Amino acid sequence: GENVEQHPSTLSVQEGDSAVIKCTYSDSASNYFPWYKQELGKGPQLIIDIRSNVGEKKDQRIAVTLNKTAKHFSLHITETQPEDSAVYFCAASKYSGGGADGLTFGKGTHLIIQP
Amino acid sequence: DVKVTQSSRYLVKRTGEKVFLECVQDMDHENMFWYRQDPGLGLRLIYFSYDVKMKEKGDIPEGYSVSREKKERFSLILESASTNQTSMYLCASGGGSGNEQFFGPGTRLTVL
Fold first, then answer.
1. How far is B31 from chain A (nearest CA, A)?
2. DSSP code for A83
3. What residues have CB less than 8 Å from A58, skipping those under 6 apart?
């Protein structure tokens, strides 16, 4: 089955700096890669996703890049703010159009924004 | 906005009890999922369903079963709760146009 590795497990950055979280996956058939943000006491919230037919996607201060050949994808957050502090999860799955497949998650990155 | 609700935020049960965790979504999504979240292990898929009365095993189905009698409701059942099932349980739902999944707030289950 799919295996997703996520690094680092903890990331501390100064407010205003950029943060990068990296993930690798093992199953070359995976074609959907979402990123979730989880704040304390809440369920994960989808913040951005990318499908295997594109290499990069951007939404305001966050962007995701995908390298299918190397089987890795990354989350980039620019101009970090205190409210970006949370645990971030990457995930991977296959979608064939005929029904859902579950997500395989990385173990998470605790992002800490230092004031 | 998609809304996924779970019946309880916190639940305490005794070993051997039968436990029901309920999840309801209001977006007419075909697909629903149950995950458990443990520190250092991330989220792991227990079961999912792509239609009423349909179910598929995820990565860790042992000790669990599910029920989907109505499209909006997906139940996770622990037939005989054990202490190693103490965890945070997260329900998610998603539509058929892609694989986006939207999560509920979670149920923190403690089995004593």
1. 6
2. G
3. none
Q: Residue A108 phi/psi, 5° resolution?
A: 100, 150
Q: B45 to chain A: which residues are within 8 Å by CB? A: 102-104
Give the gap in angstroms from C-alpha A106 to the nearest C-alpha of chain B: 6
Paired residues of B37 in beta bridges: B43, B88
pLDDT digits (tens, 9 = 90+) for B23-71: 999 989 889 999 999 998 999 999 999 889 899 999 999 999 999 999 9
Identify the CA nearest to A34 among candidates A23, A18, A43, A20.
A23
pLDDT tens digit sequence for A76-98: 999 999 999 999 999 998 876 55
Question: Which is nearest to B108 in space by CA: A110, A87, A103, A41?
Answer: A41
Could you give the CA distance from residue B92 to residue B24 in angstroms, rounded to a whole number?
9
Question: How far apart are alpha carbons A58 and A33 in whole angstroms?
Answer: 14
Beta bridge partners of B75: B22, B67
Stated length of chain B: 112
DSSP labels for B39-89? TTTEEEEEEEESSTT--EE-S--TTEEEEEEETTEEEEEESS--GGG-EEE
